[in-house]
Amino acid sequence: MIGIYLIGSFSIAISLFFSKNKNLTVGLLGLFLVLQWILTIYGINNIRSNDFGYFTYDSLAILLLIVISIIAVPAMFHSHIYLNDQPAPPATRSIYYGAIVMLITAISAGYLANHIAVIWIFTEITTLSASALIYHHRNKLALEGTWKYVFICAISITFVFIGILFLSLSLEHAGSDDLTFANLVANSDKLNPFWLKLAFLFIFTGFTAKLGLVPMFTAGVDAKDKAPAPVGALLSSVLMNLGFVGVFRFYVVIANTPLHHWANLVIGIAAVLSIFVSTVYMIKLKNIKRMFAYSSIEHMGIVMLGIAAGGIGYYAAILHIILHAFVKSSMFFQFTQLYRVYQDKSIYHVGNYFKYNTAGAMVLLLGFISATAMPPSGLFVSEFLIFRSLFEAHQIFVLIVVLLLLTMIIWAFGKNIFKILFIPPVDFDDSRVPKISPWESLSQFALLALAVYLGLNPPAEFVNLIKESIMLLPN
Amino acid sequence: MIHVILIVFIITLFYLSIANRMLTYVKVLALQGVLLFFVAFLQLSEINTLNLIFILLETIVFKAIAVPLFLGYLLKRNNITREAEPFLPNFVSLIITTAIVVATILLSNSILDSHLDKMFFVVALSTLFTGLYFIASRRKIITHVMGYMVIENGVFVLSMAVGNEMPMMVNLGVMLDIFASVLILGIFLNKIGDVFKDVDVDQLTNLKDY
Amino acid sequence: MLSLVLTVIAALFFTGIVIRTKSLASGRKGPGIMQPIKDVIRLFKKGAVYSETSSFIFQIAPTIYLASIVMAMLVVPFGQTKGLLSFSCDFIFFAYVLALGKFFSIISAMDTGSSFEGMGASREALYSMFAEPAFFILMGSFALLTGYTSFQEIFAALHIGSYISYALAGLATFVLIMVAMIENSRMPIDDPKTHLELTMVHEVMILDNSGFDLGLILTGGYLKFAIYGTLIFNLFIGIIDYQYAIPLFFIVQFLMAVIVGLIESFSARFRMNHNAQFIVALTSVSLLIFFGALLMLGKFN
Lengths: 475, 210, 301
Fold this sequence. Notes:
The structure holds 3 protein chains of 3 kinds. By secondary structure, chain A is an all-alpha fold. Helices cover 77% and strands 1% of the residues of chain A. In chain A, a hairpin with a 3-residue loop joins β1 (50-51) and β2. In chain A, α9 runs antiparallel to α10 (229-255). Chain B has one domain (2-193). Chain B contains 7 helices and no strands. In chain B, α1 (2-18) runs antiparallel to α4 (90-108), α2 runs parallel beside α6 (141-163) and α4 (90-108) runs antiparallel to α5 (118-137). Chains in contact: A-B, B-C. The interface between A and B is large, with 41 and 39 residues.
């Protein structure tokens, strides 16, 4: 099935590159969404089976595959509206659609990969397609963002490759050749610890470019700022999840070795630093998309804190990335409408949103409540569980620091959101504001509601899937 | 013999840190490509011939000929001035590079694994960190690309160390090299030179957190 | 004794060959090979002029310079025979007695009160300071490798076997040649033929010396060049028999002189601030030689 999926998607992408007819484009996009859902349903039915030896439909992959399939639908929808509103030459439009199909394909295949080199290849492909998308507007700022993204991701990919080389060195000791995760976990007691340490350092550093942690998060921030908002939604939700999958699968291997505590230390330091960095930037930011981007970094920091703390934190971390994907993507989708009203990204020139687009403003308000993890948002549950796991791991000092930083973030975020929603902007000419249909915000309400539902009253299969994906971790 | 070539490789790193002109960087990259060709030829004796020919072709054609020619063409086309302008004087760069090599040698001493030839590890890590330092300490955008090429060479040396047992790794590394270099150089050729008239890295600071 | 005689004979011809090569390379016939010696003899017959602003340092410095070089010459071995003096750690003695001579020439240059000479003196001091660790690390590596500390014993025990030692010997030759260039103020560090004081390093220090003193300094310069040539020759001589070693010695010295002449004809001097970098780069290379020696000893990896 994965073969059919990959070939189908790549051919759809190539046809989208060359299609000039609008109806054909819409048809192809619909076909791709159908294909994506077929893959998801096939995966659900054939859970825990292998495909081609390099892809496994394990529980974590299924969960994240469902997430991306759900988010892909509004992504296509809002891209369509976005490209209708912003005039773009047809060639640019085709590249956009082709690249977005390739991005979703590569991320889905990356979730399913069970061999570390395969996940590496698909991460590389996401870099390529994401950079084509970031460069959509073809102006100087977009070029700068693309260049920074490509360069930092290239260096990160090289780091991951070096980590893979060290991993194969540590595997030589065990006399095996196979770099699939299952084999690594099975041989985890025979791996050479020195090489494993180096491998973990390099792979972790490399994947932080996608995951959005210190030290390589800078690429992602510029990317989400410059890319069109629907693409930004994908970059800050499902692509970060791909980075998480890369780190998590390797973490499972290293958690079964004596290096577990050391790995927790490394992840913990990176996580706390990320939260600190995002606090610092959020306080002084005025660009709305960058604000969303730094908020994503803060959430990823919290997730990795949960991983580092252990215990209930593993469950909470996976719950958090799923819910965060829904919430953050809905906010980015809402931003497309915001931009249509104000034609500007800075907080100074935006305001009194309730007057122009009531439904959209509601989305922003609810999204803010969800993103800052206030009840009834599902994120409240997962963050609470992560704090509990920190408490149970006796990391009181870290917990206090993180709570303080999060308070500052809530303050900064809230200050900006309330300005956007309630305070009228200076020098704003509202005679030419387009009328935005409230039905466009429907998808975002649906995503937010899904986040609430999954957080507060998760179905049993959902809980079981999460529990199964953390099965291999100790305690 | 391989050790001798690797020692010469480290000396090229030193030369890179005190070189002044952009063309010298390009020539050093070409020289490193040739050295890697010989290392690959001597080291990978156990993998099958077709694979070996592919890897050898890649080093010679790509690393030693194509990329330096391309970089030289870029230098001429974008009228980039002859001088490389570093943030730190060359003197300090040389001392830092020496410190990197010494630190790597000391680090390699603490490895207890007898499986690996330590020389590869030392050369690879020093090249990697020197490449990173190169990127961080130079003012022009194109030197970032050159620093990335140096990092690629370091990765190649490391993949030589495991190449005999896992030729797949060397292939992957070659693929990464070609792919990433083509991507980066392609963007550079097409866009950066045209849009950013002044190839100073300070031009790339427009994306600020305002 | 043998090395002393051979070095003096080589010194007679060395500089002459260098100058002759440079002339021939630029298409002229050039002066005869014995011309430098004839210049020195002519200078010895003249009287010296001393400035009123200089003190006794200026008058004794050239003598001390030549004396230090002669003392250094005494410890240089030749193949299996020791020099006239040989004791443990005599390479340190070698380096520092040469440094003593250099120190006196530096302070005599500053003694004249001329700003040009002071500038040249400071440059000379800087380059010697950077070249010193290169030389010491190099000789120290060899001492580590062979387990001896005297010049003659080091060179006698040094044998070239594996690939690594070829590489090390090659690198060591390169470093020694460059140190020789630095110590003798030749290209690419210093141009002996420049006539602009701002670009001079060593020449400007002896600008005010005249007559007998200048003769002493020039003699010292020629001798120093030949001493380094002997030192480089010793790296490879090993255990060859005398009847082959002596002609080989002259051939190598001749070749070295020709190469130096060719380098001086065809290359330009480095930019002033690059000189310092280049010399520090030599220290880095000699550090590599040190680690290579440790590698060979098996104390490593």
